[in-house]
Amino acid sequence: MPHEQPQTLDAEAVRTWSSLALAALGRAREDIDAINVYPVADADTGTNLYLTAESADRALDDAFAKVTEGTAPASLAHAVRAWAHGALVGARGNSGTILAQLLRGVADVLGGEPEASAPGATGPEVAVPGGGGPEERGAGVLLARALTRAAEEAYTAVSHPVEGTMLTVARAAARAGEAAAAGTAADVSRAAYDGARAALAETPGQLAALGRAGVVDAGGCGLVAVLGALWQALSGQEPAAEPVRGRAVPVPQTSDPCGQEEDGPAYEVIYLLEASEAAVGELRERLDGLGDSLVVVGGDGLWNVHVHVDDPGAAVEAGVVAGRPYRIRITHFGDERRRARGERAQRAVVAVVPGEGLAGLCGEAGATAVLVRSGEVPAAPELLDAIRRAHAREVVLLPGGAELRAAAAAAAEQARAEGVRVAVIPTRSAVQGLAALAVHDPDGSFDEDVVAMTAAAGATRYGELAVAERQSFTSAGICQAGDVLGLIDGDVAVIGSGLAETAEAVLERMLGSGGELVTLVLGPEVPDAVAERLEAYVQHGHLAVDTVTYRGGRYSAPLLIGVE
To answer: What CA–CA distances, in Å, run from 90 to 22, 76, 155, 483, 546?
Structure first.
C-alpha cells in the first residue's frame, strides 16, 4: 500500500508496518527462494516468510474489524499481540517460525502486560513525529527495547543457534537500534534497518554454506525487508530497493547444495501445540535428541514447534506426550529438494487421516497427510491445497471416508484443470488407506499403481469402535448412552459394554470370512493392555493371521480395525 506520511507508534503504525512488510516480502519472495541454501536448500524461505507474514497480517485485519463503531480505536497493545499471534499460528518453515518469535518479542515490549479486554483497551502508545520532544524520544527507547527483546527471544527459541543466519541479522539490528535509542522511533528504525543490511552483507563470511554458494542468508534477507517496512511506516520514506548492494545469485546445483549431507534428516515436522511451559521444556529435550533445526516459539500455553527428523511419527508422538498438537505438517525433503531444482515429483499420495499418529505414519510412507480433527470434514479447497503441496505430476488421493467423496472429486477436478493427473481411490476408512499405501509403487505405471492400490483397499474390511452418545436405534438393536458400538464396514454390528470385549466380538465376525493380516489402530486413551489382549485373541483363534498395531494419536477413534 502507498505510504508517504510518518505515523505515531500506535496501532495504525503496526497495521501499516504489517501491510508494507507483506508487500515487501511478496516482491522479494522469488529472489529469497533462489538463495535459500541453509539449513536445507529447498527454495522456500521467501515463500515461508511471505505466508507467515500473510497469516499475521490477516489476524491484524481481523482484530481491527472487530472494533465496532462507537468504541475507542484499537490499542497498540492489542494490535501487536494480534499480529504476533497471527504469525505464531501461521508460521511456515524454519524462517517463518523465527519471524513469529521476533514479532512476539516486539509484542512483549510494545504490548506491555497482558490485557484482559478486547480492542479499545489502552496500551503504551507514544507519539513519533514532531520536534524530538520527550514523548518522541520515549518512543525511540521503547522501540529499541522491543527490537532487543525480539532478538533475545529468537535466540532462545532456537536450540542450537548458528551465526551467519537470520538470528545474527536480528541481533545486529537490535544493537544498532539501541545505539540510536536517544533519537526518535523513526531514527531507531532507520538505524536497525541499516544495521541489519550491514550484518546481512557479512553472512557469507560467517557461514560456510553461504560462502560456497556466494549468497547472503535467505532468512536474514527477509528480515531486512521487514525492517525496511518498519522504517517506511514510521518515516514515510522508501527503503532501498535491494537489501544489500547487488543481487544475490541463485544457488549453483551441487551434490551438497545446502552445506549438509543428503543423508541428514529426511522430514520437516511443524505443528501447533497447546501445552504448559514445563511440558515444552521436556519436549525440547526429547525433540533435540530426534533431529536438528529445532525451533520452539510461543508462550502462554500455545506454541509452534518446528524440527527436522528422520522419524516424523516420533516427533508427533512427543507432542502428544507434551500436550495437544494440531495443524500438523509433515514434509519430505526429497520432495522439497526437487522443488528447489524446479522439478516435480512424478507421483505422490495424499491421504486424509483421523489422527495425529496416523498423519505421522503416512508421512513416513512419503504421503502428504491431511489431518481430520473430531467432528471436522475437510472441504475441497483444503484437499486441493494438499494436492498442490505434494508437487507432483500424478497424485493418488485417499479420502478415507464416504463423506469426503464430493470434496475429493471437486479437488481432483480442479487439480486436473491445473495439469495434475489425479486418481481418487474411494477409501472409506483410514485402514483401507494404509492398505493402499502398503502396495503403492511410485516407480510403476500410474494406471497399474492405482489399480493395485484400489484392489488392496477394496480387499480390506474395516471396523471401528465408538462410544454411543445417546440412546439410539441401530442395525444391531437399541443402544444406550455409554455403550460401546462395534461397526463393520460402516454398520453397527455389535453393542457391548466394554472396549476389549466388543473388539473381540467384532474381530470374530470380521475374521469369520477369512483374513491374513489384522491391523489395529488404537486411540489416544486406549491402554496398551487392550492391544496385547486383542493380539493374543487373534493369535490363539487364528494362527495363520498376523497382527500389526499402531497408535492413531489424538483425534483418532478408540479403535480402528482392518482385516486383509
So the answer is: 14, 21, 20, 40, 42
